[in-house]
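S1.2 Input.
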Amino acid sequence: MKYKDYYEILGVPRSASQDDIKKAYRKLARTHHPDMSKAPDAEARFKELGEAYATLKDEAKRAAYDELGHPATGAEFRPPPQWQQDFAPGGMSFEDLDLADLLAALGRGQRAGPQRSMPIRGQDFETSVTITLEDARRGTTVNLTLADGTGERTLQVTIPPGASQNQKLRLRGKGGKGHNGGPDGDIYLHIKLAPHAVFRPDHHDLYFDLVLSPWEAALGAEVEVPTLESPVLLTVPPGTRSGRKLRLRGRGLAPDHSDLYAIVQIDVPATLSTRERELFQELAKVSNFKPREKTHDTNKH
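S1.3 Output.
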């Protein structure tokens, strides 16, 4: 098995007091919590901190851990011969255990002297759920079906308003049952957003394409546009160009701090009536607008 330096993980000396260990864990756990950190290894780092703290905060486990000496981090090692006799009286082998499992064996072994079962934290679970953009904005309740060692169970979960793609919710104490008085594990729920026919999410903001006629873009207009709740009127300023973003404040996935953006696309009629053609021809004669003028000037240089 490979050695892990729990003191190094928590950033404390091997002589650290229980109070120092607790303070170090709380500070690092806040920094690396998956709900707070965007680092790709945040979840693994957070679990590693929990493993280190679970060992060093317990006097019996810490004493047993200190007996292992101080091998290099990641180095292969074998527990002292006495451990096989003290912790595995039934002939259990340590070959397939990792360091955390080995220290958890303290609660199952029969070491000489006073012995008590060590509390073991319940297992964490991860699952995902897909919701609509409408449910993400207003919040919703979903039913999760989970299978663990105790069988299958259904859990009702409330997703608060303003959920976003790949957001992770932590359901404290809803995971596997703890043993020997240990705390229950957690469930980490990953939020997925179902594709929408109109809107495209980007974090908490939403985007959609707004198609305008040439005269709406040139003259300005009041046009009705969709939102996740109900249509609203949007003011298109005169001289609006294709690609411009028009913002509707507070209409994104999170009502208090997200927006809806209309991306302008200008379309033209596929066919023209006789009168429409006359008007476009007249406009072409009187207009001074030269959209390619800058391109021509650049080519001259």
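S1.4 Remarks. The CA atoms of residues 25 and 298 lie 61 Å apart.
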